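Researcher: Let's do a round of design. I'm pasting the structure tokens now; please hold your answer until I've finished.
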């Protein structure tokens, strides 16, 4: 099949750019969880919030949405081009998108048609210069790499031990014999290198090492050394500059060099990011005595001039002379000299801003907000979740410290809500936190309205606690069962008859599910020993759900293993005349 790179794709892009209406993803908290829809530039919903997740509309007029834990594609009328059937759909690149399901990774075109003849073990997220890097596993379990063209065909054989994306029409690959090669878009070998390591092609130079445990330097395409090996890390050249690292007293320090190897930014920084448009974010330790903490950043140019103080928590890439930044208190735009753009939005909290078609989109403190080009707010996430005409849940924000952010629920409409709301605040993590002190961990907390029926409200309190230097953080999940009429908050035992062997009965049912259902094969084989009397649980429509914390009966990646027990299976031990049961029946 012949590849087509003709003008038809530009006609599609031009047609989309002349559209009168652009749509933007927007979430709404409601009973049953957060749903996503799409608003117009006036902040009005055009596609109602029915999706579990919703991504931005892309230039081809398609957007990835989630339903029933699967991903699909819709057009701007809300019609499914691809029904939700994939685990993930990556953004389109060069008219193609990488998808994956139980079979593996595939490629679809803009009509939703799968163009690959088979599924691959791994496909990298996007096409680069009409080539997609894919991975397969051979009979010996070894990973091998090759490239597909835009027709989904293998155009460069899957035979390499490693491979880079294409850049400037060239990629670096490593053969099974250990030699490195520079290849073109058809797989023709341009140069072979007998070196311990070669990678990161950019502007005619490649990063290399002479020995496995040696330092990094740079060679030209012919393999001639241009910059002698001297760095502990090295990245590709972009706009005649490259970020390199040195090891200083067992600490990594980063700088920026020119094509002759001279430092334009000395290696004095804990991190450096290339922001594009000849600008860099340079970072230093916020607290030198705690090296695992995040860096604080300043803005520098490619000539080595430091343009601002070290005042930014985050700096995003530059686009048309502007970059979104966050300091301790606000998120806003700066120009290439680090000056705040006063006519553009300034939002309290930490996050980012981006120009999206006719609006400015902000994701600040884990909440979306949209502004028009004049900096006027046109939409933000609602803080009130109505349950009915009488009751509602109101979202409150607690951010005493830049490392501590909690959204907590408060119930309105109850006769005596004080005790309930006090408990909700405490469970959500609202506690005294010093404003100016550097914390040893980062905590974010939120909530969902999982269930509401008759007088029973079930609120999920969730969070994530990341201890700096740890391999990962620990997720938090708690459920609160509230009787809105009298303020009672129920425990598991309250659902069952007094004296009933509910622990034994529930434990046996769960064991039965584990033994009979292959979906629980991920559990540790000998770690399930039944439930506790106060086992974490939540009520859903028609069922009791029992769950376990990470590491209790499964590996961390399994999250919170959950078992659903229909009420019909428990009717002999449920106290059907009890207050808990009657609160929702």
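Researcher: That's everything. Go ahead.
Model: Designed sequence:
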């Amino acid at each position: 099949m012949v590849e087509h790179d003709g003008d038809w794709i530009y006609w599609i892009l031009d047609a989309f750019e002349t559209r009168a209406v652009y749509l933007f993803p927007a979430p709404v908290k409601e009973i049953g969880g957060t749903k996503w829809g799409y608003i117009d530039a006036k902040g009005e919903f055009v596609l109602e919030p029915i999706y579990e997740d919703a991504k931005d509309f892309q230039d081809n007029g398609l957007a990835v949405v989630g339903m029933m834990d699967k991903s699909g594609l819709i057009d701007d009328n809300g019609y499914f081009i691809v029904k939700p059937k994939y685990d993930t759909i990556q953004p389109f690149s060069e008219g193609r998108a990488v998808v994956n399901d139980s079979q593996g990774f595939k490629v679809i075109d803009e009509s939703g048609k799968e163009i690959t003849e088979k599924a691959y073990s791994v496909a990298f997220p996007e096409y680069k210069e009409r080539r997609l890097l894919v991975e397969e596993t051979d009979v010996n379990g070894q990973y091998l790499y090759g490239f597909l063209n835009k027709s989904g065909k293998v155009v460069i054989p899957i035979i390499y031990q490693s491979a880079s994306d294409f850049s400037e029409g060239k990629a670096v690959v490593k053969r099974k014999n250990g030699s490195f090669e520079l290849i073109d878009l058809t797989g023709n070998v341009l140069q072979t290198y007998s070196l311990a390591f070669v990678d990161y092609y950019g502007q005619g130079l490649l990063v290399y090492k002479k020995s496995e445990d040696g330092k990094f330097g740079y060679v030209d395409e012919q393999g001639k050394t241009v910059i002698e090996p001297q760095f502990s890390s090295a990245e590709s050249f972009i706009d005649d500059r490259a970020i390199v690292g040195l090891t200083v007293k067992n600490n990594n320090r980063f700088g920026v060099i020119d094509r002759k190897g001279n430092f334009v930014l000395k290696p004095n920084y804990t991190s450096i990011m290339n922001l594009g448009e000849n600008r860099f974010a340079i970072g230093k330790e916020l607290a030198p005595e705690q090296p695992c903490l995040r860096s604080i950043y300043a803005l520098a140019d490619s000539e080595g001039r430091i343009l601002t103080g070290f005042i930014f928590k985050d700096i995003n890439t530059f686009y048309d002379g502007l970059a979104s930044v966050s300091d301790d208190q606000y998120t806003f735009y700066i120009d290439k000299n680090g000056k705040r753009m006063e006519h553009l939005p300034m939002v309290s909290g930490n996050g980012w801003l981006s120009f999206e078609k006719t609006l400015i989109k902000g994701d600040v403190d884990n909440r979306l907000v949209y502004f028009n080009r004049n900096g006027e707010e046109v939409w933000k996430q609602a803080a009130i979740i109505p349950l009915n005409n009488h009751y509602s849940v109101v979202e409150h924000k607690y951010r005493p410290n830049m490392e501590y952010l909690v959204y907590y629920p408060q119930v309105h409409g109850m006769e005596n809500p004080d005790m309930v709301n006090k408990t909700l605040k405490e469970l959500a993590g609202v506690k005294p936190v010093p404003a100016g002190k550097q914390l040893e961990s980062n905590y974010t907390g939120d909530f969902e309205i999982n269930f509401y029926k008759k007088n029973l409200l079930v609120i999920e309190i969730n969070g994530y606690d990341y201890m700096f230097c740890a391999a990962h953080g620990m997720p938090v999940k708690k459920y609160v069962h509230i009787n809105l009429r009298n303020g009672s908050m129920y425990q598991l035992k309250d659902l069952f008859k007094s004296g009933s062997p509910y622990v034994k009965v529930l434990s046996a049912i769960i064991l039965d599910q584990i033994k009979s259902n292959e979906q629980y094969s991920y559990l540790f084989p000998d770690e399930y020993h039944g439930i506790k009397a106060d086992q974490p649980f939540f009520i859903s429509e028609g069922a009791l759900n029992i769950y376990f914390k990470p590491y209790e009966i499964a590996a961390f990646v399994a999250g919170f293993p959950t078992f659903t027990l229909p009420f019909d299976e428990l009717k002999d031990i449920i106290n059907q005349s009890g207050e808990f049961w009657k609160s929702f029946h």
